[in-house]
Structure formats: C-alpha cells, structure tokens
C-alpha cells in the first residue's frame, strides 16, 4: 500500500473516532507512513503494509460497532418518543433489542406502589414465571441485586449461578444460558429492571455492550416516568371533566328546579290569594249585611253569623295548614317520635272523628291484626294524618255508609289503611290528590276544605320514614294507605 492510500484511510478512521491527531500524522506520513500509522493504533513492531491494513480493519470494525450502538440508541430514543402509552413503548424497545441483538427472551420489571417488582412487559417468557417472579426486590435474586445496587448484573454462563431462586421456574420453558440485568434509573432512583436472556450458549458480554444496555435501560426509565406522568395527567383531566360534567348537570337540574319553584311560588301565591279571598269575601259580605241592615228575623241573623263563623274557622284552618306545611318543608317542625301501640292510636282517631260519623250516620270499623308490634312515630302527627284521612272518607262517603280503619303488618312496617265507599277517584288523578290545593269534590255536594290536608299528611308520613298512597276504582270507593316503621327491637319479631 502506498503512502497516500494509507494516509487517506487513516484520516477517515480518525475522523470517525474523533481523534485529534490528523494534522501531526499527515506530516509524518510523508516520511514513514507505515511505521507511524501502526504506532498510532498500538500495532506490534513491523513496517509491512499487511500489518497496517489489519490495524485499519480492526479500527474500522470498532468504528462500525460504535456507530451501530449509536444508531440503536437513536432508534430507541425515536421509538420512545412516538408514544406515551407505557405498554406500547416498552414493547417497542424490547422488539428493537430483539431485532438488533438477537435476544429471544426479554423483560421489563417495574416497581409498583406496593413495593413489588413485577414484569410489566416481556418477550418470550412464560406466564407462570411472570406471575411467580413478582416480589419485593432482595439480593436473593439477580434482578433484585441489580435493583438494590443500582448496577448491571451480568451472568455469562448460567452453569455458574449462585442464586437459583426462581431460575428453575424460568428454565422450565426457556433454556437460558446467559443473561444481563440493568437498572432503569431516573434522577438517581431505580424504578425497574431491563433484562435480556441468551439461549445459544455462554456469552461474553463486552463492557461496551453492558454500557449500551445500561444506557437503553436509563432511556427506558425516562420514557416510563414520562408515560406514567402523562397517564396521571390524563386520569386527572378525565376525573376533572367528569366532575365538571356532573357539576354542570347538577347546576342545570338546580336551575330547572329553581325555575319550577319560581313557577310553583307564583301559582301558590295566586291560589292562596284566591283561597283566602273566598272566606274573607263571605265574612265581609254577611258582616256588612248585619251592620247596614236591620235583620229582625232571628233565624236569618243566626244563619248569617253561622256562615261568618264557618268561614272564619275555614280561614283559620287554612292559615294553620299553611304554617304547618311551611315549618315541615323548612325542617323547623318539632318531632317527638316514640313507641306507640296501634290499638291506642286507632281508638283516639276514631274517638276524635265520632261526631263526623254521627252526622252522616256512618259506621266506622276498626280492623287491627293481632300481635302487631309498637310503631315508632310522633303520636300527635300520626293522629293528625289519620283524622285527616277519616275526615276525607266521611266527606265522600254516602249517607249511612261504612268506613274501615285497617292495621296490618307488611315487610317490616305497619300498614295502615282507611277505606271508604265513596264514588272513587279517576286513575289519572291518583297522584294529584297529594298536591297543594287539589280537591276532589263530590259532584253532588261540594265539600269545603283547604286542599292542603293530604299534602301535609304526605310530608308527615315521609318524615316518619314511611310512605303514603291511594288506590281507587271509580264507583267502588278509595283506600288511602300508609306505612309506619316499627319501634326498635320489634322490627325483627
């Protein structure tokens, strides 16, 4: 080989290796090209062109190997930047290592929040080993040693292993002959282990390869942390979106409810004004007649005064009902629940309503089942509900009819019913009867009332932990039923 050829070949190698000796060797190569070139590369004594060529070939091989390693790192970096899904990027790097270095069995272990080191992604490992190898890192295993010491662990020949824990499980399906573990380190903290298993006989892992494998592990650590942070941000963002959506839905419902309440308030005020105006008009009219005109007939005077008294009582009941309903809905009503025997409750309600029954010649019957435990309720409020239901039953019952007050046990509650023989309630009005100012009047005889009794009854029953409803068929009367919980200690009997 002539001088210029040697000089040109060396120049290329020197540039590739980053050597800062080109200028010196260019001058010297004119006088002693063969000897100087061999001296630079650490060649043995001799000046033959064959030795120079061999040295250049070795340098080129080193350069190509280094270049390949750089390309692998670059490709790994590019692969890691393509995805923020942790499982995707782990698989891509493992497949890259398999393709470039020929390893058929690889794995990535990540440390969980519970301190367990688990295989998160792998190539060619059996699931039994993957499951069995999940453990707190200790020095009883090679990967645990690598994790705890933060340094690569290399075994070139598995016949010489001195930590057999778990290795037998792996060797059942994978004929491992050599392996390398490298810690995945991020900001001085080990977060996992990158592992490659060889199966083609003992291997000599060069220091350059170990450095490359460790660099890949650290790149993988950074990408893993970024992916985990991205997943956390995504989860937080999704949670916030769900919270915002729920809150928006709540606000929309609240706004709809406010609009509905505003409408109900307007209707309520309008209805109350009308209901108050009616008795007040009667009172004022008959009062004016008595004041402005001399009414000599005692019967007429008595009739007018009776109307004034009746309307005044109606006005008083309406105001009391409005106050009761307002206090119940505002939560300002005092409640005094206590164990009550239904027999005493029924007796009191029927006694209070006796005059109403006698006025229309109605027979009231009590039908109370045997061995019903005490109920837990406010006695006065339960009495208010029952007398209201009995009064409504009288109102719509025919002359000489029958009303039944029934007590039974059902599903851990006392079931109380008031059944009448009135005209019944149309099916489309069964729910409306519990709304404010809803009155179902007897078409043959208008029945006065505030229209709040059943609304108040529903509020009272629900406050006591029960429910109230009505069942009816036109022409066959109506049955109002309510449930009341049993007293503690009697519910399971």
How would you describe this protein?
The chain is α+β, with helices and mostly antiparallel strands. The chain has 4 domains: 3-69, no CATH class; 82-234, GAF domain (Beta-Lactamase, 2-Layer Sandwich), CATH 3.30.450; 252-328, Helix Hairpins, CATH 1.10.287; 332-485, Heat Shock Protein 90. Helices cover 54% and strands 16% of the residues. It is built from 14 helices and 12 strands. The protein has helices at 3-17, 22-28, 33-40, 49-81, 86-101, 127-132, 142-149, 167-171, 207-292, 298-330, 342-352, 354-360, 379-396, 453-463, and strands spanning 105-111, 117-123, 153-155, 178-186, 189-198, 337-340, 363-368, 375-378, 402-410, 413-419, 468-472, 478-485. A 5-stranded antiparallel beta sheet has the order 2-1-5-4-3, with helices on both faces. A 5-stranded mixed beta sheet has the order 7-9-10-12-11. Helix 3 packs across helix 4. The longest helix has 86 residues, at 207-292. 25% of the residues are buried. The model is unreliable at 1-46 and 441-447 (pLDDT under 50).
């Amino acid at each position: 080989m002539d001088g210029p050829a040697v000089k040109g070949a060396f120049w290329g190698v020197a540039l590739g290796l980053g050597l800062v000796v080109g200028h010196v060797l260019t001058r010297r190569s004119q006088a002693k090209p063969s000897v100087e070139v061999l001296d630079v590369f650490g060649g043995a004594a001799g000046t033959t062109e064959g030795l120079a060529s061999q040295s250049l070939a070795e340098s080129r091989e080193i350069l190509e190997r280094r270049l390949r390693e750089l390309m692998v790192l670059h490709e790994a970096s590019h692969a890691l930047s393509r995805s923020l899904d942790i499982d995707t990027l782990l698989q891509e790097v493992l497949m890259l290592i398999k393709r470039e270095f020929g390893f058929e069995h690889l794995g990535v272990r990540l440390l969980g929040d519970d301190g367990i080191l688990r295989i998160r992604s792998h190539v060619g490992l059996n699931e039994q080993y993957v499951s069995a190898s999940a453990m707190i890192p200790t020095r009883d295993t090679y990967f645990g040693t690598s994790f705890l010491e933060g340094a690569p662990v290399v075994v070139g020949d598995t016949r010489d292993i001195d930590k057999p824990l778990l290795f037998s499980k792996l060797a059942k399906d994978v004929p491992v002959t050599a392996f390398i573990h490298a810690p995945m380190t991020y900001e001085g903290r080990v977060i996992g282990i990158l592992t490659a298993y060889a199966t083609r006989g003992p291997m000599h892992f060069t220091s350059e390869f170990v450095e490359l494998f460790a660099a890949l592990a650290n790149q993988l650590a950074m990408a893993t942390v970024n992916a985990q942070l991205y997943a956390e941000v995504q989860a937080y963002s999704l949670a916030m979106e769900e919270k915002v959506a729920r809150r928006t839905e709540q606000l929309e419902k609240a706004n709809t409810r406010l609009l509905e309440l505003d409408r109900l308030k307007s209707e309520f005020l309008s209805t109350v004004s009308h209901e108050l105006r009616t008795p007040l008009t009667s009172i004022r009219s008959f009062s004016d007649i008595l004041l402005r005109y001399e009414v000599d007939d005692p019967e007429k005077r008595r009739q007018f005064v009776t109307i004034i008294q009746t309307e005044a009582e109606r006005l008083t009941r309406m105001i009391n009902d409005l106050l009761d309903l307002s206090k119940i809905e505002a939560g300002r009503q005092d409640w005094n629940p206590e164990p009550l025997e239904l027999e005493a409750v029924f007796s009191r309600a029927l006694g209070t309503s006796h005059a109403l029954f006698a006025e229309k010649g109605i027979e009231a019957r009590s039908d109370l089942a045997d061995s019903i435990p005490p109920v837990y309720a406010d006695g006065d409020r339960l009495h208010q509900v029952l007398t209201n239901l009995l009064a409504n039953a009288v109102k719509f019952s025919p002359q000489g009819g029958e009303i039944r007050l029934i007590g039974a046990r059902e599903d851990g509650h006392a079931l109380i019913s008031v059944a009448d023989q009135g005209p019944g309630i149309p099916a489309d009005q069964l729910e409306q009867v519990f709304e404010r100012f809803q009155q179902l009047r007897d078409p043959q005889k208008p029945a006065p009332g505030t229209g709040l009794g059943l609304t108040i009854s529903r509020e009272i029953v629900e406050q006591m932990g029960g429910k109230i409803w009505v069942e009816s068929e036109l022409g066959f009367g109506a049955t109002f039923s309510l449930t009341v919980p049993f007293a503690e200690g009697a519910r399971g009997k």
